[in-house]
Amino acid sequence: xxxxxxxxxxxxxxxxxxxxxxxxxxxxxxxxxxxxxxxxxxxxxxxxxxxxxxxxxxxxxxxxxxxxxxxxxxxxxxxxxxxxxxxxxxxxxxxxxxxxxxxxxxxxxxxxxxxxxxxxxxxxxxxxxxxxxxxxxxxxxxxxxxxxxxxxxxxxxxxxxxxxxxxxxxxxxxxxxxxxxxxxxxxxxxxxxxxxxxxxxxxxxxxxxxxxxxxxxxxxxxxxxxxxxxxxxxxxxxxxxxxxxxxxxxxxxxxxxxxxxxxxxxxxxxxxxxxxxxxxxxxxxxxxxxxxxxxxxxxxxxxxxxxxxxxxxxxxxxxxxxxxxxxxxxxxxxxxxxxxxxxxxxxxxxxxxxxxxxxxxxxxxxxxxxxxxxxxxxxxxxxxxxxxxxxxxxxxxxxxxxxxxxxxxxxxxxxxxxxxxxxxxxxxxxxxxxxxxxxx
Length: 440
Ligand code: UDX
Fold this sequence. Notes:
GO terms for molecular function: NAD binding; UDP-glucose 6-dehydrogenase activity. By secondary structure, the chain is an alpha/beta fold. The chain has three domains: about 5-195, 3-Layer(aba) Sandwich (Rossmann fold); about 205-295, N-(1-d-carboxylethyl)-l-norvaline Dehydrogenase, domain 2, CATH 1.10.1040; about 295-425, Rossmann fold. The protein contains 20 helices and 13 strands. The strands form three sheets. It has a six-stranded parallel sheet, sandwiched between helices. A five-stranded parallel sheet has the order 10-9-11-12-13. α9 (about 200-230) packs across α12 and α11 packs antiparallel against α12 (about 280-295). It starts with a strand and ends with a helix. The structure holds uridine-5'-diphosphate-xylopyranose. Uridine-5'-diphosphate-xylopyranose binds next to α9.
């Protein structure tokens, strides 16, 4: 078993640190944020993620993980140091690598023995070369250091599951010594191990995320076409999904992708290509389609209700997807801002993220304690997140509580015929009410 230091306790750093501990390694996780470190040391997770706090407490009790702000000592005697710090988006869409490079420098200064430096943060192609140069430049002691690209594929809401049961482990290195050590670290994971060059590994991550983003934007465009032509996107994707080359997942039409990865990683790869004089037209299209798609509900609403001033609008679901408290690139936020600017009275509900949204928008009064409170007296209801609690709403709840039951569903949560039968004026994404079925 190895002694592993992990830099950064965000999603990637924290969940992979716990994964290493779970598989028997001795882990020290480092972060500059002393409040997060104190909380984690006491068994409190800074993020909401199913199974995370239980795993944290279990590994703390087993003595396999500890948390510290003292990077210097954590890095000094580690067999492997994992870089899992954030790479936020710069103004121009490129990835901001300041934190990665800062940690690389600190690692170099403190290494006292041969070790692996494993880059898990999502970084543009070529960054591992820079990390290697920075670490080697900063070295104060004689040590052999291998820098390995090892991207992480966890999704929010299932981060713990994804880490323990991932589809593959990508190891980017040209060194046989480093490969052998990496295989030891991951020996018990039971996941396919793919060894490729460092640059390829860096690109695997972006290409995978951007492909998935593209898949979503493609389906959303076909859904918009369904709305025009009178076809149903769920029927279309059901038919498509039987072709194994297409696959039946990630074909859910909606109001676009949000979160901390797809919006950032599409822009970062597009920016990187452009920086090399090459335009990635498919990714560019995915970005543009997604930007527009997030306002689909407002466009649909305007047809029913050209002026929203003074109207009560219920908003159900605020996070970028269910199972997380994350609001990064959540379509709900810009939509609420547009409606508020136009004078609408917002009545919002989310099972988890209400305090965070209230703080972000500086308005607590619009947050309601339950679905019913959000719906009461509303002239329209916009659904942004498919939380189970929202999917389970019975159609007559809308007719009972709303002043006029206009429901615009951005995540296709309901059966359109049941909604119509209950008297709801229901619009979703790519699922117009087909007249032929209505008459049967
Ligand atoms: C994603 C990748 O899934 C993960 O492998 C990578 O490491 C990080 O980025 P995440 O952003 O947590 O993970 O969530 P994901 O479940 O992939 O959803 C991203 C967005 O796409 C959400 O806004 C979701 O609502 C949307 N989505 C997803 C769709 O609109 N349709 C789909 O079919 C799937």
